[in-house]
Write a structure and sequence with these properties.
Porin; eight-stranded antiparallel β-barrel; four-stranded antiparallel beta sheet; 12% helix
Length: 229
């Protein structure tokens, strides 16, 4: 009986030690938590930017030797909409309007300001976005521009009207977003648009016309806020 009682005590001790160790292990081992999975970003993105539009000076009036033209710069607001087909490939459409003065230069410099026009230059580019630089998101793009000229006014008494004709152009682009978080960022962007529309000037007091070409080819520098949905 003594041996049986001693064995029972030893067995009880072993069980208690095992259970206590398991409880201690359970208390010391942290519970497993599944990693938080963020919802995928929407393919849509918008930007609000301020643009500095800087046309190149150049052009001529047909048949007027040594004639030349220059154009005023403009600072305007702009909205662009971007859609991501993949994480790297996207399309961007920019929307805005810009006013510009047309001035005579060269042998027609005495004319001074010839006219004033407004431009609506929607530009669609296909972009490649680089994604391996953390919050720094550079991109390049190329596409097409179609510029509509409106609110055109002759500003010289020699002309009764000025008509710059709508035109297509090619566009190149480079820029980057610096993302503050998943949704918000700061954008810097530059575009070169190759745009050389023709124009018609009607002489005051007669039905005669002058024609020519305006070599606008503007540089467009932009900066603003990015929001990715």
């Amino acid at each position: 009986m003594k041996k049986f009682g001693l064995g029972a005590i030893v067995a009880a001790g072993i069980v208690a030690s095992t259970v206590g160790g398991a409880v201690a292990a359970d208390l010391s081992t942290p519970a497993y938590k599944a990693p938080v999975v963020e919802a995928p970003l929407s393919p849509w993105q918008i930007r609000v930017r301020a643009l500095y539009v800087m046309p190149e000076n150049g052009g001529s009036v047909d048949g007027v030797w040594g004639s030349d033209l220059s154009y005023s710069d403009a600072v305007v607001p702009e909205l662009d909409i971007t859609y991501y087909f993949t994480k790297n490939i996207a399309a961007e459409l920019i929307l805005g309007v810009t006013p510009h003065d047309i001035n005579g230069e060269g042998t027609i410099a005495n004319l001074g300001q010839v006219g004033k026009v407004w431009l609506l230059p929607p530009t669609l580019t296909l972009q490649y976005h680089f994604t391996d630089f953390g919050p720094f998101k550079p991109y390049i793009g190329a596409g097409v521009n179609y510029t509509v000229f409106f609110n055109q006014d002759a500003k010289n008494p020699a002309f009764s009207s000025v008509d710059v004709h709508d035109a297509w152009g090619l566009a190149l682009q480079a820029g980057f977003d610096w993302m503050i978080d998943r949704h918000w960022g700061i954008n810097f962007d530059v575009k070169k648009i190759f745009l050389e529309p023709s124009f018609t000037l009607q002489l005051a007091g007669s039905g005669a016309y002058l024609t020519g070409g305006a070599d606008l080819n503007p540089w467009i520098f932009g900066t603003g806020i990015t929001y990715r949905f």
